């Protein structure tokens, strides 16, 4: 999976930054974005890989995860 970070301009003209959508590809992410923001203009799209490492779910692992 990949995370896509969008900056858009809504149909009312307001700029919205840092909308993050996790999807298989860019087209799927754009489709999901347009379901939430009808008639928006996409100003920028960045993509980054999702870190799929497994963390320990004990108390110490959760504290380390929160403190990162």
From TrEMBL:
<protein>
    <submittedName>
        <fullName>Uncharacterized protein</fullName>
    </submittedName>
</protein>
């Amino acid at each position: 999976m990949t995370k896509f970070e969008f900056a858009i301009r809504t149909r009312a003209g307001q700029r919205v930054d840092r909308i993050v959508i996790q999807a298989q590809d860019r087209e799927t992410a754009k489709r999901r974005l347009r379901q939430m923001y009808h008639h928006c203009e996409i100003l920028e799209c960045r993509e980054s890989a999702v870190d799929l490492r497994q963390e320990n779910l004990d108390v110490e692992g959760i504290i380390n995860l929160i403190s990162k």
